[in-house]
Amino acid sequence: MALSKLNSLYRTLVAEHSRHPHHQGSLSGVEPIQLNNPTCGDVIQLFLVKDEGGRITDISFINSGCSISTASASMMTDVVIGKKEEEVLALAQDFSDLVKGLELSSTGQLGDAAFLSGVAQFPQRIKCATLAWNALKKALELKEMKGK
Hints:
By secondary structure, the protein is of the alpha+beta class. It has four helices and three strands. The chain has helices at residues 3-19, 67-80, 85-99, 126-147, and strands spanning 33-37, 42-50, 56-64. Strands 1-2-3 form a three-stranded antiparallel sheet, covered by helices on one side. Helix 1 (3-19) packs across helix 2, helix 2 crosses helix 4 (126-147) and helix 3 (85-99) runs antiparallel to helix 4. It is globular. The relative contact order is 0.18. It comes from Streptococcus danieliae. Residues 10-128 form the NIF system FeS cluster assembly NifU N-terminal domain.
């Protein structure tokens, strides 16, 4: 695919997920994890439910942030629902590596989020793109601690 078509697809996907984010809102009875990006002011509250087997059964977010932050959170929620914690943590690492410009053997499991690889060209936007994923890792870590 030509570079201009990839750039166009990237802009289209980011715009679509930003304007119409998936899984946005709170989850009743679930305490959110809140993270912020002090560099630009993006804030996210992430709501996460997982079953006893460690599979994410529901996830949502409320945010105040830029289009990349919102799109990344929307894309992330699509990718992780139904996946086990170990898979999710591996995906979060892959995504982090991807937006830092590191080569991955495959990006297929990241879904639309793979198109955010272009963020690597703008280092100041990496924190925007990874905010939701970092909130996800923190939520899993805290839920694990509470479970012990």
